[in-house]
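Supplementary Note 2. Why include the ligand at all?

Several targets in our set were suspected to adopt different conformations when bound, so apo predictions alone were not considered sufficient. For every target with a known small-molecule partner we therefore ran a joint prediction. The input for magnesium ion is given below.
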Amino acid sequence: MSLLKVDRLSKKYTKNVQALDDVSFSVNEGECIGIVGESGSGKSTLAKVLVGLESYRDGTVLFNGIPILPKKRDLLRQFRKNVQMIFQDSTSSLNPKLPVWKSILEPLDNFKEVSPSFLNIKGLSRKEIAEELMEIVGLDRSLSERYPEELSGGQKQRVGIARAISIEPLLLVCDEPTASLDVTVQVQILRLLKELQKTKNLTILFISHDLRAVSYLCEKVIVLKDGRMVDSFGLADLYQEERHEYTKALIKAASLDR
Ligand SMILES: Nc1ncnc2c1ncn2[C@@H]1O[C@H](COP(=O)(O)OP(=O)(O)OP(=O)(O)O)[C@@H](O)[C@H]1O
Ligand SMILES: [Mg+2]
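The joint prediction is reproduced in token form.
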């Protein structure tokens, strides 16, 4: 069974903006799927629907066979435990009043019943647990007392990743997690995600306008244009003649063409 199954999903905002139009795809456990498309193609809308932050009327979204319905609070709590999101703008997703270590512990505080299998937390203080998580994402422990404004963009993004993986989600939805970072830091974050995917068997939905980043991380790619899925393929078929014209244009724009 697919971990995530999206079937004929459409989403209209008011003023008749058709942000998503008949989108269907599925994601198996341990897979990394990339979603690419230009600005306004519906990527963030899709991410928000998938994490239960945005409602939808048409189509179905199933996670582990259970529908994601933003209005069912109990189901949503269970679901939040299994699906975490990393946002493009790490600044607005971190509480400016909390030092790094407290920010990192927020999800574990919300789900006290969870203890991540990759951490031996016995005998550790709460702060030490946060510091262990910092190490996993390549952040120096000495930064634990800092506030978000005292961190670089890349460091903040790592805090976001540490938070997200702390409760060992089954699915990680990343909405342009590297868009605000410079190229070397982008590569580091992509490497980190790839390593986490492998070592923790994470399923990742990676959203980006950058086909280069997607082709580094993901084995399957979905292309969105004006809310419609115009192409979907395995990475090995990136250069096949049957690719949609729009995909070819993205390949060219990313200077990936041969
Ligand atoms: N809350 C909203 N109300 C009305 N329209 C919206 C809302 N959010 C997004 N839209 C519109 O829906 C469409 C898809 O937006 P979305 O944010 O999903 O695109 P995106 O692919 O994430 O773009 P970007 O790459 O710029 O982040 C756009 O036309 C946008 O203007
Ligand atoms: Mg977006």
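The first strand starts at residue 4 and ends at 13. Residues 43-44 surround magnesium ion (ligand 2) (CB under 6 Å). Comparable summaries for the other entries are listed in the accompanying table.
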